[in-house]
Write a structure and sequence with these properties.
The protein is built from nine helices and 27 strands. The longest helix has 18 residues. With 464 residues, it is α+β, with helices and mostly antiparallel strands. The strands form five sheets. Strands 21, 22, 23, 24, 25, 26 and 27 form a seven-stranded antiparallel beta sheet that branches. Strands 1-2-3-6-5-4 form a six-stranded antiparallel barrel. Strands 7-8-9-12-11-10 form a six-stranded antiparallel beta barrel.
C-alpha cells in the first residue's frame, strides 16, 4: 500500500469516526499530525522473526515454536526494541532475525538478544550486519500524558494487509501512581501494534505500547498484566543510551537476595493471629542455603521492618515491591529485620548474598557425543521441580532428533547424575566425563539419571 493510499484510507476512517459522534478519540487528531507522524515513523518499524524454545514447567520438556512481532529501531546503529514476552522464565528465543524495509526491498539480518532489563517488559536486539548501519531511528519526547488524552499508536497490519504500517487511536483511560506512574489505554491493542510508538496530538513520540508480564509469566514488581499500557520515554531511555549487556552470566548479577517466599499480612490474617492490623510480610518458605536461613528466620515469622524501613504490606504488589527493595539493597550488606514470632517481637541480622542464577542464565554444555545439551540446576529449577538439595547433577535441556540420546529415550528434564562411573554434579564434571569417553571410546555406556522421583540407567551407544 502506498503512502497516498494509506492517507486516503486514514481520511475516510477518520471522517467516519467524526460522523459517529464526539466520543471517538480520533476527533482530537488533525489528519496532518497523523500523516506527518506516519511519514516519520513508518521507516523505523520492522518485523522481528524468531523461534522460541518453551519449557513445560511440569515435565521439563522443551518444544519449539515460531513467531513474529513488531520491532522498532531506536538507534541508527541497529538497536531494536520489541515486546518483553519474547523472553520469559520458561521461553528462550533462538534464531532471531530482523526484517528491515518493505516489499521487494526488504532485507533480513540476524540479531542478538541483549540481556532483558529487570525494570520494564521490553527486549532489546542488536542487528548484525557486515557493514556499519545507519538506520532510520525514532526520536522520543518526555512530554507527560493526561487523563483522557488521545494518542495514536503506529504498528504493522496483519499478513492479509501485507504487514503494511498502520495506525490505531486510543485514549489514556487511567493514570496509576503506584508503584510507578502508569498510563493505561482504553480498548484493545492488536498484537502487531505492541511496542509501537505512541504519538500525542502534537506529533511527539512519548513512549511505546507494552504489556506487563503477569506473575505466572515471571513478572515481579510491575505486574499490571492484561491491559495495554504506555511505557513512557523515561522508563527505557537509559537502555537506549546504554544498551543492556549480552553477558547474562551469574557473575554479572549484582542484585541482592534474602531467600524467602512471603505473602502480605491482610486484615484476615492479622485477626486470625491476633496481631496488630498494620500490615507486614508473612514468611511462608525459607529457602535452603539462603541468607534468611543463616539469620534464623523461620516460616511463620512476620517481617515488620527491613533495614530500618517499616513493612506494611497488605497486597500482592507490596510483596513484589519488597522483593525489589531487597535486590536493590546491595550484595554483602548486613541488614536488620524486625520480626513478629508467635506474636513476640524478634530482631535478626542477615547478610544479603548475590541473587542466584536463573534457568535463563544457567551455564550450558552441548554434548555432540550423546547428542544433547545439559544445563546446571539453578535455584529456580529446584523450586519448580521440587528437587531436594541432595539431588546433584545436570539437567537435560535439549535432545537432538536421531541422536544416541534420543534412541536411548533420554528426554528434556532428565537429571543426569553420572556418566559411566563418573559423577556429573557440575557441568565441569560432565565435560570431563565426556572427555574420558572420547579417549576410551566404549561401544556402550550407562547414564545414571533421575526421572521424576525415580532413578535408573539409560543404555546409550555414543557416536564419537
Amino acid at each position: 500500500m502506498s503512502a497516498e493510499r494509506f492517507r486516503s484510507l486514514a481520511a475516510v476512517l477518520l471522517f467516519a469516526a467524526v460522523s459517529a459522534g464526539p466520543s471517538r478519540a480520533q476527533d482530537d487528531f488533525a489528519l496532518s499530525t497523523i500523516n506527518g507522524a506516519y511519514e516519520r515513523l513508518s521507516p523505523s518499524l520492522c518485523t522481528v522473526l524468531f523461534t522460541q524454545e518453551v519449557t513445560d514447567a511440569r515435565t521439563g520438556e522443551t518444544r519449539r515454536r515460531d513467531g513474529s512481532s513488531l520491532g522498532l529501531v531506536v538507534r541508527a546503529d541497529g538497536l531494536v526494541v520489541t515486546h518483553g514476552h519474547l523472553v520469559q522464565s520458561n521461553a528462550e528465543p533462538v534464531e532471531v532475525r530482523v526484517r528491515l524495509g518493505k516489499g521487494a526491498g526488504a532485507k533480513e539480518h540476524p540479531a542478538r538478544v541483549l540481556k532483558k532489563p529487570d525494570d520494564i517488559n521490553l527486549v532489546f536486539l542488536k542487528v548484525q550486519a557486515d557493514a556499519p548501519l545507519d538506520l532510520p531511528a525514532v526520536s522520543f519526547s518526555k512530554s507527560p500524558l493526561v487523563l483522557g488524552e488521545p494518542v495514536a499508536v503506529f504498528g504493522l497490519s496483519g499478513e492479509t494487509l501485507d504487514l503494511e504500517p498502520g495506525v490505531l487511536v486510543a485514549r489514556v483511560s487511567a493514570i496509576l501512581d503506584e508503584p510507578r506512574t502508569t498510563y493505561a489505554l482504553d480498548g484493545n491493542i492488536r498484537f502487531g501494534y505492541v511496542t509501537g510508538p505512541v504519538v500525542n496530538t502534537r506529533g511527539e513520540v512519548v513512549g511505546v505500547v507494552g504489556f506487563d508480564l503477569g506473575r505466572a509469566e515471571g513478572g515481579e514488581l510491575h505486574t499490571r498484566s492484561g491491559h495495554p499500557l504506555v511505557y513512557q520515554t523515561e522508563l527505557f531511555e537509559g537502555h537506549v543510551a546504554s544498551p543492556p549487556s549480552e553477558d547474562a552470566s551469574p557473575g554479572s548479577r549484582e542484585e541482592a537476595w534474602l531467600g524467602v517466599f512471603t505473602q502480605p499480612l491482610t486484615s484476615d490474617f492479622a485477626e486470625y493471629w491476633k496481631v496488630e492490623d498494620t500490615g507486614g510480610l508473612i514468611v511462608s518458605t525459607v529457602l535452603p542455603d539462603s541468607p534468611a536461613l543463616r539469620a534464623g528466620i523461620q516460616s511463620g515469622d512476620i517481617i515488620k521492618s527491613f533495614d530500618g524501613k517499616p513493612m506494611e504490606a497488605r497486597q500482592d504488589r507490596d510483596v513484589l515491591a519488597f522483593t525489589q527493595l531487597v535486590r536493590d539493597t546491595g550484595v554483602d550488606r548486613t541488614v536488620s529485620l524486625g520480626l513478629l514470632r508467635a506474636g513476640q517481637p524478634v530482631t535478626v541480622e542477615a547478610t544479603l548474598s548475590r541473587l542466584p542464577a536463573t534457568a535463563q542464565e544457567a551455564g550450558e554444555y552441548d554434548d555432540a557425543v550423546l547428542g544433547l545439551a545439559v544445563r546446571e540446576i539453578t535455584r529456580d529449577v529446584r523450586i519448580l521441580l521440587n528437587l531436594a538439595e541432595d539431588v546433584q547433577g545436570v539437567i537435560v535441556r535439549r535432545v537432538r532428533p536421531g541422536s544416541p540420546a534420543q534412541a536411548a529415550n533420554i528426554r528434556p528434564g532428565v537429571i543426569i547424575l553420572a556418566v559411566g562411573d563418573q559423577p556429573t554434579t557440575t557441568l565441569a564434571e560432565y565435560e570431563a566425563a565426556l572427555g574420558q569417553l572420547r579417549e576410551k571410546k566404549p561401544p556402550e555406556i550407562s547414564v545414571f539419571a533421575r526421572v521424576g522421583a525415580q532413578t535408573g540407567f539409560f543404555r546409550v551407544q555414543p557416536r564419537y
